[in-house]
Request: fold
Amino acid sequence: MLQHDQETVCRCGSGLSYEACCKPYHQGSQWPENALKLMKSRYVAYALNLPEYIIRTTHPASPQYQANVFAWKRSITKFSQSQVFQKLEVVDFIEHDSFATVVFIAHLASDHTDNTFCERSYFEKLKGHWLYKWGELIEGHEPNFSQRGQLQLLPLAYYGDPILTKQAEPIEHINEDLRILVDKMTQTMDVCHGMGLAAPQVHHSIRLFIMRQPILQEGHLDLGDLKVFINPKILPMSSETWKTAEGCLSIPALRGDVERAKSICVEYTDLEGQRKTAEFFDWEARIILHEYDHLNGVLFLEHLDAQQKKALEPSLKQLQQRLHDSLEL
Ligand SMILES: [Zn+2]
Ligand SMILES: [Zn+2]
Reply:
């Protein structure tokens, strides 16, 4: 007698049997060779209520990662059981060395309600395995392809990576390679919704960081102008300081209150090779000081008071453990 599984067509829409398609991934005997297969196998895992697979294929630094695995499993199961998984439609797929995006439409329904949504999912490779990083909903099921085929993203260095505690080297030449790096850093920062990014955070130990502060204008978010700082020097600061919560793309999901100068003067070289001096205030000053610290191997955690440091300790330990142990199969 044939197994029921072998007869069933895989829910990912490949036209293959489940047995020959997504089942080997779900059972752990194979790891999806690209982000598109991972995305499809995760859709099927939701449809079949396989929370372990969803958890195993979520990047440990994902904002969607939940420390409480039991609660996480329960919420996946609740979602799986409340929906009818009608069809998966892949709209776009872009893959680079270690970053990939998939735009898809998941046709779902529950109790005569259409729950169809369109999402752009981001995937990152860690230790040779593709993992789901995060997703953002695209309103009205109409994906915007402005970045199609051009997305150039860089892998991030996470807490615990030795490059984040190293003194970065001065830059001697501003050339095409550096401009390409700045372009990729900008795309990586924008995709991650960061306001600043330092070269060591993308595995380049050189004295370079970028910044852009989004501005809310007439109800919509303007990305703001990109500013590039090469070999920066921070000149005398005002004595006035302010304290507010900061986060860091290299330390996902953790925040802490940091006291910083309200205004600073920065001497730096721009991408055209011009040496400049400019003043910055409030949030711009804060972002610059945060990124400048990265060039000296300093993380915002070092500025926290003893009480905050102690409070964050377990979460940091957990993050590091997730980053280093999760893929030991
Ligand atoms: Zn499949
Ligand atoms: Zn940072």
